[in-house]
């Protein structure tokens, strides 16, 4: 296998939902993929489910993106294993939807620390390795339609995801002259366990594999081309 075919990806928050779908798509495309989330049990389970999806290879490591050292160890593990880093997908994210007047400070902190600080920590860990990459590396941040449109109850979530859009675009300008592309993918509603307590949305919602498809297609662009911001919406959301 040529080095180009052994591309190394680290995907945060990849034991279920969108991150799992992205990891699966990458493994199907022959990537070597490191998956991670906060629970060893969920990491082991995800790796077990992904192992048969090859030709790519998969490994897992516990990761808490709120902790800088954890992000550093995650990226270090990817580089040690793959010998390089081609792609970081900053996907780990949480949502706690409450009116501002009822929102617990802990819920605010959880969302800002996971959805925004986590991207900063993971990206800073990855950038030196991406800069060493002769093909130019790529950072894909999973934003949301909520990165541009606020909703009631979304004070912390919107703040984190609007912030992520600004962070992504600033990173893009900082890094592109180093050959590193930075992209934000902003999905609408996706059928995952993200919306705690909400009944399953039905067939109108996006699926994790749709977001994965977007990222897989993105990665096929020639290096000179840099799609920097992508919105992915359900075609027929109810009542809109
Ligand atoms: N679902 C949607 O409708 C939707 C729409 C637009 C954007 N998004 C965004 O897409 C991303 C993924 O959402 P999802 O719907 O796939 O959610 P999900 O099903 O709840 O999955 C979230 C993943 O992130 C991990 N995670 C949470 N906190 C973490 C932390 N501190 N460190 C490392 N991993 C962590 C979770 O595993 P552990 O619990 O084991 O840590 C899990 O693997 C998020 O950034 C979300 O904001 C979702």
In short:
The protein has 240 residues and is an alpha/beta fold. The protein has helices at residues 17-28, 40-50, 68-82, 105-131, 155-175, 208-218, and strands at 8-12, 32-36, 58-60, 87-90, 138-142, 181-187, 229-232. It has a seven-stranded parallel beta sheet with strand order 3-2-1-4-5-6-7, sandwiched between helices.
SSE map:
Blueprint: E1 8-12, H1 17-28, E2 32-36, H2 40-50, E3 58-60, H3 68-82, E4 87-90, H4 105-131, E5 138-142, H5 155-175, E6 181-187, H6 208-218, E7 229-232
Parallel strand pairs: 1-2, 1-4, 2-3, 4-5, 5-6, 6-7
Helix pairs in contact: 1-6, 3-4, 4-5
The structure holds NADP nicotinamide-adenine-dinucleotide phosphate.
**Proper CATH architecture:** 3-Layer(aba) Sandwich
Helix content: 40-55%
What is the C-level CATH assignment?
A: Alpha Beta
Question: What is the approximate shape?
Answer: globular
Largest beta-sheet details: 7 strands, parallel
Oligomer: single chain
Order of helices and strands: EHEHEHEHEHEHE
Average per-residue pLDDT, rounded, comes to: 95
- The CATH H-level superfamily is NAD(P)-binding Rossmann-like Domain
Q: How many domains would you count in the coordinates?
A: 1
Strand numbers in spatial order across the main sheet: 3-2-1-4-5-6-7
Bound heterogens, unique: NADP nicotinamide-adenine-dinucleotide phosphate
Number of helices: 6
Low-pLDDT parts are: none
For this structure, the CATH topology is Rossmann fold
First-last Cα distance: 49 Å
Proportion in β-strands = 5-15%
